[in-house]
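Help! Submission page says 'invalid entity' but I think these are all valid:
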Amino acid sequence: MTVLLALIAQLLHLVLMLATAPLLAGSLDWLEARLDGRAGPPLLQPWRDLRRLLRKQPRWADAASGLGRAAAPADLALVAAAAALVPSFCTGMAFDPVADLFVVFGFLGLARALRILAALDGGVAGGGLLAARRSRLMLFATVPALFAAFTLALLAGTSNLDLIVVLQREGLLQPASASALAAAALIGVVLAADPATEDPDLGGPPLAALRLAEALRLLVWLDLLSAAFLPIGMAEAADGPVAWAIGFGAWAVKLLALMAALAVARRILGGHRPRAAAELLAAAGLLAIVAAVFALSSAVTA
Amino acid sequence: MSDPLLALLLVLLVLMPVFALAARSARLGGASVASGLAVLALSGTMVALAALALDAPPAMLALPIGPTSFGLRFLLDPVAAGLLALVLGCGAVVALVAGSDRPPARRGAAAADLPAHVSPLGPVPIALALAGFGLAAVAGDGGSLATGLAIGGLGTWIGGLGRGASGSPAPVGALIAGPDPAAIPDPAAAPDRTSAGGATPSAAAAHAADPDLPAGSARLAATLFAAAALLVALTLDDPARHARYLCAFAAAAALAGLVPTRAGTSPARGAAVTVLLEAIQPTLALGLLARLTLNFAAGAPPVWWALPPLLLGGAMAVLAGWRGVQAPTLTGIVTLASRRQTGLAAVSFGLLLLARAVDLPALAALATGAFLLLLVTQALGATLAILAAATLQAGAGSDRLDRIGGLVHFMPVTTLALGAGFGGLALLPPSGAFAGVYLALQAVLATPRGTGLAPALLSAFVVLALALGIALAAMGAVRALGVACLGRPRAPRTAGAKEVAGPLRAAWIMLAVAVGAVGLFPGLLLRLADPAVLQLAGTELGARVGVLQLAPATRVPGYAPLPLALLLAVFGGILAWLHRRQGGGEGNSGPAWQQGFSPAPPWLPFGDPGTQSTGEGFVPPIGAAALPRLPALRWPFQLPRRAEDVSPRRGDAVSLRTSAGPAPRRGADVSPRAVPLLLLLGMGVALAVLACLGAA
């Protein structure tokens, strides 16, 4: 029975993540527009865009190769796999034994690398510039992300995400300040994420795949933040549907709060966000290193 | 291990150069010699693997060679068997590829009659180098070790020798086996209007003018220095163990190229020699260092022994990785990626020494697992990537990123081979190297907490090296594949590239399967290598590694590459099914949107090469990244500097804007770029202060 519940919870989690990702992107766009004093697009606009793009024929540049054509769906598959491993409303799901924090970051990194390949496939100037910018961001983002993951794993004594969430929920990740520093570093990474710039020579379903992957990536980051640092209200998969419903409510509230905070931060940074990305990531890296050193030099209390 | 196996291995090693010399005398065809050599090397690999799998006690064999009271002793222990399997396995592929299309020598023809790109000694240098490195791997004393290294160094030196100039194009095998630099066809000499009147130098000319082009003699000198240092280390008495360790480390650093240099990144010596120097020799060097160091330590090594490999390896991983992402040639990217991996393997070895020093067997076992996995993936991945890069160069006539492009359309199999090679070197899941990095991270996680600031900073340095290594590995691979193989060709010469066939494809497939198998089944590999782990770490990995997962401890979740790969395959399959359900059309192809640029003139059939990325700007200059300038902050009422006093600095938008634009305003001026930095820094400082207060 427990295994069955874990499987059902896993499937539900995956469906929830895939369904919520475009909605989150739409809500974020709407909120940012409202903060700017504009009416903003409808919340379901990303879903409509995806449907519209999926009805079209794929469009490729003359120079596009099979490798580049496979990059967009592979990007989506990798981000979806990462999404499947990060718990949302409950712990103890079917994939939790393989849900390692380093693997999640590895999948996201590989997906980012594939996006860079996709940008270079068309052989146009815009794609090359996009690839170079994404590459620089990837370099600067890896350090804070890996250090934050390392700090969490160090505090928990394991890099398994499910166990980290459980220990965090029980208040056993000590010292809490190291955990907070790691959280701040990850917030910096999320804030410095590449704004939604699209590959100039893609259209149709590949573009839909890339857009969905981008929305899902943002959701994975927010979900990771909420699960690893605010595991309030999360249910156990074995507890059944009632507990899941409570966990789902808590997850929705946390997601809304994080989304609002992200929109406000983006509003404050405004048009400077692309230029400030390197500084943000450098600061995030600094915080993450401080968190790791602090965790390493502090004695184990739990 | 058993004496017959050791004797058989020695016979096979001696047979290699003897066979190559005999074949040269008999004027056998290149493919026949290559196949024979590959069979001998593969046989050696199988015997070494059998010795490892049998897990028998170490076997010693003394050969009465040389003056009285001097004999060469050979020792086959688990580490030696593993090293030998790796050296000969990669060597077999090199031999196979190097002789793939070497023309058979004419009977009675003098060396001078051979085409310029063909090495007059044929496969003899490769056989000599493999035999020498093999003998060094199973060396049992200083004499045999120095002899083996000297023979190996001589082989690589002879293999890198060039001859006179020629304009004839080099076939793939000749380019791999060791062509003359001038034999590489000059793209600028071709009727290519993209070169703007020949302004772009040819690859050969560029490499010839490269001040960092290594002299083969320098590498030979490094090898001979290493041999001498190891001879001294093995001759010194036991009380001088610190001196012995330093000698061994210096030797390994010289052999593995653990010094920040760009030397060796040129394809001019031929890919076979590059593989021997950049893929096989570093593996051998670090393996020998591990084997010797733990013998010298005779128990627990001092803690400081861990510092040189940790610091030098970490620095090497970052510097080589960074330069690899900036390298202008495909060969440069590949060789520097190999050195980055060597640096990370050295870091893992440092962790192993640290664990042995403070007597943490679990940490030692994890670090040893990481060390072995990084060595194996480095040897396999670098061999495949270097050979594939050389083949692409042979096809495209250049390996400069600003001269080639779109090679996936003309050489798809070789491009996939290059991708597989980079897959072996990439530190992202589900590659074997990621499994190595994962174990290294678990080893750092297993270090005891609360032992002071210095150990904490050292651990942070290791994690920083690993983090940057991961990012740089991915970026180097993406840059090489994206710029050289995707996009449009930049010259008609590239569009004339022909795909390889025959032995080369077999070699690609062999190595790619090996790389993939290590990625999906790292646990099986470590199970096979458990005797070597026991020898190095003093404890086995045991139940921590299995077919499905690598775990930091027994009965805890860990890294499970096969289930994760299946998960990815399921998601990929679902997407493919959805695509097919949507109609599965190939879609429309058309000219890419040039973002407002005017269309290319008709004499540029592949479009304007100037509008395509040459891979520049993927990373900032390392100096600017390591020491970033503070954001533009000026205190209130401080007089601004005059615009002409502000010297523009590359990559510094603030300085450039200040110097080029109008004079800055007087008064308070906090750059918007500083806001997030200050916010986050302030929050971090506040949290750190609170944390310190809480800890107190």
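Support: the input was valid. A stray whitespace character was the problem, and the output above is from the cleaned input. The radius of gyration of chain B is 27 Å.
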